[in-house]
Amino acid sequence: MKHPDTFYITTPIYYPSDKLHIGHTYCTVATDAMARYKRLKGDKVLFLTGTDEHGQKIEDKAREAGITPKEFVDNIVSAPGGILDLWKLMNISNDRFIRTTDSYHEQSIQRIFKRLYEQGDIYKGKYEGKYCKPCESFWTETQLVDGKCPDCGREVADAQEEAYFFRLSKYADRIQDLLENTDFLEPRSRVHEMVNNFIKPGLEDLCVSRTSFTWGVPVDFDPGHVVYVWIDALSNYITALGYENGQYQDFETFWPADVHFVGKEIVRFHAIIWPAILMALDLPLPKKVYGHGWLLLDGGKMSKSKGNVVDPVILAQRYGVDALRYFLLREFPFGSDGNFSNEALISRINMDLANDLGNLLSRTVSMAGKYFAGGRLPAEQAEGPEDGEITALAASLRDRYEGEMEKYAFQNALMEAFKVIARANKYIDETAPWVLAKDEANRPRLARVMYNLLECLRLSAVLLTPFMPQSCGKIFDQIGAGPELRTWESAGQFGGLPKDVTVERGENLFPRIDVQKELAELEAAAEAAKKAALPPLELEPQLEETVDFDTFVKSDLRVVKVKDCQKVKKSNKLLCFTLDDGTGIDRQILSGIAMYYEPEALVGKTLAAIVNLPPRKMMGLESNGMLLSAVHTERGEERLNLIMLSDAIPAGAKLC
Ligand code: MSP
Q1: Where along the chain do its domains lie?
Q2: Distance between CA atoms of 90 and 83, rounded to whole angstroms?
Q3: What mean pLDDT, rounded, does the chain reach?
Q4: For a substitution probing ligand 1, which of 10, 11, 14 has the most ligand atoms within 8 Å of its CB?
Q5: I want to staple 24 with a disulfide (CB 3.0 to 4.6 A). Which of 20, 29, 186, 431 is the partner?
Q6: Tens digit of pLDDT for each residue in 426-455?
Q7: Strand ranges (E), 279-361
Q8: Does domain 549-642 have CATH number 3.40.30.10?
């Protein structure tokens, strides 16, 4: 039986088909903050994340790269700079990391699949779809692009493939009831979409095996079939606890999960398919699935193929891991989409972390150090009329914060902590310690003011620890709060620090950022990264259509020498060439290459031209022919090179 003080929380397992971006980091950081919060409260926490490593896409990408699928995923997951390193950098405190290629997981999947088959929840049928022969891929009607294969653009044909199906339809009523009549799925706004779009139109049985690719868990009782996607991926949440394997013994302690955090596009799989699989296995259901929103860039979804992904490593290196973690959970309400921008990131760091929290810490600690010898407050202190409101606000912070955290409202929880921080900054202005410091008689009052400020910092820092673990540790060090004053219990009351606490000034935790300079540098870095991600060389595909020889030889290609070359007035593109074509009469050709060449550099060069094109007027000048050049694209930029020939070849020589 699961103990009430245990807490099992998961992220989705990520596809290691590309490097992860800030959107993936968002979900993992949120899960980490929740796991750390529960640990702070004293729960026994199991925080699971991992990678979803099977499937056609990985198989295809590995083939393209000329390596095995396992080598391919290892490069993205466990090689230096991979997913494991990213989570280390982001200070993610996961207790376990599952890879669906781990042998214990594969063994469990085979057992789960077999059991569902033997009890009749999985049956053999025919998968029907549109098949692309060259790609060996099935597509649904909606995946096709203009009725053709979305990968290669070729014709597809109706085809059938033997496959296993899971009886999802059998569980439709129970799932509708679960969604409508319990708190299983949050935010509640997502329930309506699930029920109306997917359950009410009729749940179809789900195809759970494939024979068209091999990179998956083999169905052990039917060679040729591999388990297809969702049974393999979703079951990670139980196999990682030891369900149907001997690797771990945590199933009894931690299942059912307290919450699965998932992005909104995979809510459907977690709120419909996953409970159905668990019902079929006769296992308790997770207590909650929370579908968070997406981080958008310029209003659209980030995607590697669009080239608009934000790299968390660059941001963490520039601003610090904690600042990035804070921003992600403070800026966007967890259940809704949010627009990521560098401006928002920098202004949030400057406003909240540099101005409010950083300033409060450095002002308080430096004043305490300046006004009291060795930074030690005297125990004799005097209350004042300004104290009541701020101490009450700080003392009740933990309750308000807890209320928000229990609802996964990270943004609100952080706002509560920052209300205390803002109030403390105002308290400095109200009490004006620099005025108190002028008169020795005010020493007890001055000490009390400092003490109240330190307590506000301490209580806030305890509750900010799940979000900014390293920075809060440094705050505690500066304000003299030992381990027993960093706990959840100690954050429930105002007045935990000893009256004669000693402060120790340390580094400035959140330096202010120069917005303009930083934005320019970030843009340049993003541009460089975008370029680096582009294919180094792109060539125009060769034409499939043939041209007959007689047509080809009608083009009169000649060697020409440049006698003069000028920019055409009012045109950014055109150069006007005066050429010797061997006839004794100058030939004028206009060419749109002004952005590639300085005209004077071309004088005297030997080039190739087609000379029997009909005359054409451009910008009021006549062009008689065309110069030949070679064109290709390099890292997204078009490159052009005029065909230059040896100066030993005379003008007028025919090219053939
Ligand atoms: N492998 C599946 C999940 C299987 S769980 C049993 C998968 N992987 S994924 O790598 O494509 O996505 C993992 C998670 O990252 C999803 O929850 C997805 O919503 C989240 N995000 C990917 N891009 C995102 C944003 N731009 N913003 C927020 N989250 C995003 O789906």
Answers
A1: 342-492, 549-642
A2: 11
A3: 94
A4: 14
A5: 20
A6: 999 999 999 999 999 999 999 999 999 999
A7: 289-292, 295-297, 300-301, 338-340
A8: no
